[in-house]
Amino acid sequence: MTMPLPPAGEPPHTLGDLRELADTYLDYYRAALLRKLDGLDETELRTSRVPSGWTPLELVRHLTRVEARWFRWGFEGEAMPPERAWGDRGPDGRWQVPEGETAESVRAAFTAQCERSREIASGVPSGQRARTGGRFATEEDAPTLGWILFHVLQEYARHVGQLDVVRELADGATGE
Question: Which of 130, 149, 114, 157 is nearest to 21 (CA)?
Fold first, then answer.
């Protein structure tokens, strides 16, 4: 039986400012990711349904690291060991959720990192280049905030789409 997920809706079709559109869509996908986890028990959150082997919780950990990598280490230039920015990987190179991490703590870390990303980007013009000293060594390497926003947005669109399939395989739920 197919169970629809609660509707959320895209941002208003009347938005015309590209920066506002990017910020709003990014929040839309952040929320969609969390909505797709709702209703899955701990076992389902830790079970892979795809040949590559990732689980829904591992995907959330990955996207937490994406946020940190692009906004904190990347745009803000925060000092961060590359292994922290790239995330927890097992011996096989796959994403992993460290022992002792609960679904609740993974969600909380994701939510906190998204809030930090919003703070970093808030009020900054899209054309502002990332600081050097973190991920980017030179100004020539440093992308604009607008580029980062769209890069992170496409990463979410891809991964939330993958999670759509995983959720349907897990319990038949479909929808936004």
Answer: 149
| In the predicted structure, residue 6 carries a pLDDT above the cut 50 | no
* 65-88 pLDDT per residue, tens: 999 999 999 999 998 876 666 666
- Residue-by-residue DSSP string for 24-39: HHHHHHHHHHHHHHTT
With 0.85 as the threshold, say if the pTM is over it. yes
Q: Which CATH architecture has domain 18-171?
A: Up-down Bundle (1.20)
Cα separation of 40 and 81, whole Å? 33
Strand partners, 89: 95
Give the position of tokens 């600081």.
131
Judged on CB neighbours under 10 Å (0-12, 13-18, 19+), 142 is buried
Residue 49 · residue 169 · CB < 8 Å: yes
Q: Where along the chain do its domains lie?
A: 18-171
Is-contact 95 88, C-beta < 8 A?
A: yes
122-137 in b/e form (b: 16+ CB < 10 A) is eeeebeebbeeebbbe
